[in-house]
Amino acid sequence: MRPEPDPGPADPSTEARRPPVPPALLASLSALDLTSADGRAGLQSFLAEIERRAPGALLQQAAEVQLRRLGCGGFVDHRNRG
C-alpha cells in the first residue's frame, strides 16, 4: 500500500473557525501506542466519543481532507447558510 500524499496546508478560513485543541488532549493522544492492542482500543474509544458528541464530525473531516487532496478548494460550511 502506498503512503498517502501530504494534503498540504489547510484552508485558513476553516482553520480560523476551529477551536484550539487542548494541550492535555494532545498529550493523551501522543501517548497512545498504536502498535499495542491497548493503544488501538484507546484510540477507538476516543473516536467513538467524538462521534457520540458530534455525529458526523469525523466523516466531515475525512471528506475535507479528500477534497484538499483532489485540489478542490476549501470546505464549504453549509450549516450556517441563511
Provide structural commentary.
By secondary structure, the chain is mostly helical. The chain has a domain at 27-72. It is built from four helices and no strands. It has helices at residues 12-15, 23-30, 37-53, 57-69. 0% of the residues are buried.
What sequence of helices (H) and strands (E) makes up the elements? HHHH
Strand segment count: 0
Q: What would the principal axes of the Cα set say about the shape?
A: globular
Estimate percent helicity.
Answer: 40-55%
Using only C-alpha atoms, the radius of gyration works out to 15 Å
What percentage of the residues does DSSP assign to strands (E)? Answer: under 5%
Largest sheet: none
Low-confidence stretches: none
N- and C-termini, Cα separation:
44 Å
Overall mean pLDDT score? 78
Compute the number of helices.
Answer: 4
Structural class: mainly alpha
Biased composition (Pro residues): 1-10
Region (Disordered): 1-21
